[in-house]
C-alpha cells in the first residue's frame, strides 16, 4: 500500500518529468514491475481557479501473464470545513462527488470509468468505496488500512476469478474513540488488471461557459499543447539546446526543475516555539506557508536556508511565483524579526518529524539566503511589492545584528550550538545550515563565525539595494556593507596564517576523540546500561583559529567579498583546486581530506554529514563566484576561469550520471565515488544543476 512518498518504500524511480508550477504536470512512478504515469491539466475560468483533470495510466513491465491486480485509491477529504456529497452507481461505484468549500465554492468531482491505454475501449474493473469521518489528513492511510478486507472477488467475463483486498466497512481507528472528527473522507477504489487508464475531472461551479468536459480526447489535446509550451519555455529560459546539451541531458534538467515545482506545498498550522523569556514551549500564532521543499520523501516541509537556494532557480522560471514564496516566508516573522528555521505546520507535517526536532528556538538563526533570490528578482520587482517587503527585511536584518553579534565589533556568532559538548566530537551548529561542520571544539561567547559574517555583508548589500530602489535612506546598510567587505579587517579577524586559509576563531582544541565509557548500574544488582561514546579532550582548549579547512574557509570567495586583486585569492583558489584538500572529480568536497575531522562520526548515531561529501548548493555558489572572478579584471582572472570550467564539467557530469543510474537527484554526493547519498529524491538545492548547465548566475 503506497500513499505518501516514503523513502523506505524503495521505489526504483519517481518524480515529475514536466511541471510548469501552475497548470500542468507529468509524473512517472516505477515500483517494481509497475509503471504509473500521472498527468494533470488545469483550465482557468470562473472565480475559484477553474477546472482541472487528472489522468493515471498503469502498465506492468516484464511481468508474466496474468498481470497482478492493481487498485488505485482516490481520496476526497474536507479538512475542518466544507461539505461532500457522494453519488453512487450500483451501491459500490463512487461515480461523482459534489461539494463546497470556502476556497473552491461549489464543485463536482467525476470518476470516469477506466479504459484501455489507448483511451478508446472500456476496461473491466471492480469498484469499492468508503464514506467515513476523517480523523485528520495525516491518518488517511490508517483509515484505508484498517478498512481493508480480502473477501472481494475480481471476476472478469471469461477469465479466472481472483480474490483481492478492498475497502469495506470503517469501524474507527484504535484509540480514537470519542475524538471529534476533523472532516469527512470519501474514497473511490478502482481495481483492474493493467494496462489501463483512469481519468478524474474537477469542475468548478463558478465556470459559466464550459467548452466541454476536460477528458478523453480534449484532455489528450490539452496535454499535448502544454508539453509543447513547456519545452519551448524551458529552452527560452535556460537555452540548453543552444548550449549543445543533447536531449537526454535536457530531459534531466527539465525533470530537476519540474520535481522542485511539483514538490511545492501550501502548509497551515502552528510552530512549537521555545523562547528564553518563557519556561515552557508555546505554540506560535497560526501561519500559512507556500513554499518549495528539499525532498518530498524525507523533508516535505519548508526550511529557511534551503528556500533561498530553491528560489534562485524558481525566480528564473516564474518570478511572480518566486516573489509570492518569499513574501510568505517573510510573513512568518515574529514581532522581534525572527523567522523559525524549520516550518513544521499542521498535523501532516508534524507526523513526519521526530519529536526532538519539533521545537524551534527563538534565538537560533539560519543563513538569510532568501536575499540571494531577492537580489536576483530586484531589477524587475514591482515597487509596491518591495515597499511591502522592506519593513520586514529591515526587522529581519536588525534581528541578526542584535542577536547574532560577536564579542568584538563587526564579528558574528551563530547562537544555539549543541549545549552538551561532551556528547559530540564537535558540537553541532544547526543554525549555520552546515550542521556538523567543525567549529571551535568548546562553544564560547568569544567565537567568531566567518560564514555568518559573510552572510551579513551580503544582507547589508541587498538591503542597501532595496532601499535605493525605494528611495529610502541606504546609508547605514552601505556603510555596514563597506565595513564587512573591508579585506584588511576580514584578514585581521579571520585569516589563519598557520592554515593558509580563512577560518573561524574560538576556544578550540584539536586533540579530541570519541571513546567508549562504561556506565555504572542505576542500582546495586541491576544490569549496567550499554556503554556510551563520550568525548575525550586530550589537550586543553585555547582561543585560536579553528583548524578546519572546508566550505566555511571559502565564504569570502563564495559571496565575492574578496577583491579580484586580493593577495589571498591565489591561496583560496589553490585550496579549491588541491586534490589533497577540496578538489574531487565530482565537485568540491565539504571538508579537506587532510582536515582532522574529515569523514569522522560526530556521535555513535551521527555519521559525517558536512565533513567530506559534495553538496550542490555550495558548489553552485563556488561556480557563481568563479564566474564572477573570471569576468573581473585581476591577476587571477585566467586561473578562476580554468577552475570554473573544470568544476562545472565535473559537477554536471556526475549529477547527470547518478541520475541516469539511480533515477534520482540526491541530497549529497560521495567525494570518493561520486555516488548519490543521503535522502532522495532531493530536488531541492541539488536542482541548481539546471542553472549551472545554463551558466545562469
From TrEMBL:
**MF GO annotations:** Glc3Man9GlcNAc2 oligosaccharide glucosidase activity
Q: Name one GO cellular component term.
A: endoplasmic reticulum membrane
Q: Which UniProt keywords apply?
A: Endoplasmic reticulum, Glycoprotein, Glycosidase, Hydrolase, Membrane, Signal-anchor, Transmembrane, Transmembrane helix
Question: Which processes are annotated in GO (biological process)?
Answer: oligosaccharide metabolic process; protein N-linked glycosylation
Which EC number applies?
3.2.1.106
Q: How does it sit in the membrane?
A: Single-pass type II membrane protein
| Family classification | Belongs to the glycosyl hydrolase 63 family.
What protein name applies here? Mannosyl-oligosaccharide glucosidase
Q: Which organism is it from?
A: Smutsornis africanus (Double-banded courser)
Q: What is the lineage of its organism?
A: Eukaryota, Metazoa, Chordata, Craniata, Vertebrata
Amino acid at each position: 500500500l503506497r500513499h505518501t512518498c516514503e523513502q523506505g518504500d524503495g521505489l526504483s524511480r519517481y518524480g515529475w518529468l514536466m511541471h510548469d508550477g501552475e497548470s500542468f504536470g507529468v509524473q512517472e512512478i516505477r515500483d517494481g514491475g509497475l509503471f504509473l504515469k500521472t498527468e494533470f491539466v488545469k483550465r482557468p475560468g470562473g472565480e475559484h481557479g477553474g477546472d482541472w483533470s487528472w489522468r493515471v495510466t498503469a502498465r506492468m513491465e516484464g511481468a508474466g501473464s496474468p498481470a497482478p491486480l492493481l487498485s488505485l485509491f482516490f481520496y476526497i477529504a474536507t479538512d475542518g470545513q466544507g461539505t461532500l456529497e457522494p453519488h453512487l452507481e450500483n451501491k459500490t461505484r463512487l461515480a461523482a462527488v459534489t461539494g463546497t468549500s470556502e476556497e473552491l465554492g461549489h464543485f463536482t468531482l467525476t470518476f470516469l470509468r477506466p479504459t484501455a491505454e489507448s483511451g478508446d475501449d472500456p476496461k473491466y474493473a471492480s469498484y469499492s468505496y468508503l464514506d467515513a469521518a476523517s480523523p485528520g489528513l495525516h491518518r488517511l492511510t490508517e483509515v484505508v488500512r484498517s478498512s481493508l478486507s480480502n473477501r472481494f472477488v475480481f471476476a472478469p467475463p471469461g477469465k479466472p476469478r481472483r480474490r483481492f483486498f478492498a475497502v469495506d466497512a470503517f469501524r474507527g481507528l484504535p484509540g480514537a474513540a470519542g475524538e471529534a472528527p476533523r472532516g469527512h473522507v470519501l474514497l473511490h477504489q478502482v481495481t483492474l488488471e493493467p494496462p489501463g487508464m483512469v481519468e478524474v475531472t474537477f469542475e468548478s461551479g463558478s465556470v459559466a461557459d464550459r467548452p466541454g468536459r476536460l477528458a478523453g480526447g480534449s484532455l489528450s489535446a490539452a496535454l499535448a499543447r502544454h508539453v509543447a509550451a513547456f519545452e519551448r519555455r524551458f529552452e527560452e529560459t535556460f537555452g540548453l539546446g543552444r548550449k549543445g546539451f543533447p536531449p537526454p541531458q535536457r530531459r534531466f534538467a527539465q525533470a530537476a526543475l519540474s520535481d522542485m515545482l511539483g514538490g511545492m506545498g501550501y502548509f497551515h498550522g502552528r510552530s512549537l516555539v521555545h523562547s528564553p523569556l518563557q519556561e515552557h514551549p508555546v505554540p506560535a500564532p497560526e501561519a500559512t506557508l507556500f513554499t518549495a521543499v528539499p525532498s518530498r520523501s524525507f523533508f516535505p516541509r519548508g526550511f529557511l536556508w534551503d528556500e533561498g537556494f530553491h528560489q534562485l532557480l524558481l525566480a528564473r522560471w516564474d518570478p511572480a511565483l518566486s516573489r509570492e514564496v518569499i513574501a510568505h516566508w517573510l510573513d512568518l516573522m515574529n514581532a522581534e524579526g525572527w523567522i523559525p528555521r524549520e516550518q513544521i505546520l499542521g498535523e501532516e507535517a508534524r507526523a513526519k518529524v521526530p519529536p526532538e526536532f519539533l521545537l524551534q528556538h527563538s534565538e537560533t538563526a539560519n543563513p538569510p539566503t532568501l536575499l540571494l533570490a531577492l537580489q536576483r528578482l530586484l531589477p524587475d520587482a514591482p515597487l509596491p511589492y518591495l515597499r511591502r517587503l522592506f519593513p520586514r527585511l529591515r526587522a529581519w536584518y536588525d534581528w541578526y545584528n542584535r542577536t547574532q553579534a560577536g564579542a568584538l565589533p563587526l564579528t558574528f556568532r551563530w547562537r544555539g550550538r549543541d549545549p552538551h559538548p561532551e556528547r559530540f566530537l564537535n558540537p553541532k551548529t544547526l543554525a549555520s545550515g552546515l550542521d556538523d561542520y567543525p567549529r571551535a571544539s568548546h562553544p564560547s561567547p568569544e567565537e567568531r563565525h566567518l560564514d555568518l559574517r559573510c552572510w551579513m555583508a551580503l544582507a547589508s548589500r541587498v538591503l542597501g539595494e532595496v532601499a535605493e530602489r525605494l528611495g529610502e535612506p541606504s546609508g547605514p546598510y552601505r556603510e555596514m556593507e563597506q565595513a564587512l567587505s573591508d579585506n584588511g579587517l576580514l584578514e585581521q579577524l579571520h585569516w589563519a596564517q598557520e592554515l593558509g586559509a580563512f577560518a573561524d576563531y574560538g576556544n578550540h582544541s584539536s586533540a579530541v576523540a570519541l571513546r567508549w565509557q562504561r556506565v555504572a548500574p542505576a542500582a546495586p544488582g541491576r544490569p549496567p546500561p550499554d556503554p556510551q561514546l563520550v568525548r575525550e579532550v586530550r589537550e586543553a582548549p585555547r582561543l585560536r583559529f579553528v583548524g578546519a579547512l572546508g566550505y566555511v574557509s571559502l565564504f569570502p570567495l563564495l559571496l565575492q567579498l574578496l577583491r579580484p586583486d586580493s593577495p589571498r585569492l591565489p591561496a583560496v583558489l589553490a585550496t579549491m583546486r588541491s586534490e589533497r584538500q577540496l578538489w574531487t572529480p565530482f565537485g568540491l568536497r565539504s571538508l579537506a581530506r587532510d582536515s582532522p575531522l574529515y569523514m569522522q562520526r560526530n556521535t555513535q548515531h551521527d555519521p559525517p554529514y558536512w565533513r567530506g561529501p559534495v553538496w550542490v548548493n555550495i558548489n553552485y555558489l563556488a561556480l557563481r563566484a568563479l564566474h564572477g572572478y573570471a569576468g573581473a579584471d585581476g591577476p587571477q582572472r585566467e586561473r578562476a576561469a580554468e577552475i570554473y570550467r573544470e568544476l562545472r564539467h565535473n559537477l554536471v557530469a556526475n549529477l547527470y550520471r547518478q541520475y541516469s543510474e539511480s533515477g534520482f537527484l540526491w541530497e549529497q554526493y560521495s567525494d570518493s565515488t561520486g555516488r548519490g547519498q543521503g535522502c532522495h529524491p532531493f530536488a531541492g538545492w541539488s536542482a541548481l544543476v539546471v542553472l549551472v548547465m545554463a551558466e545562469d548566475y
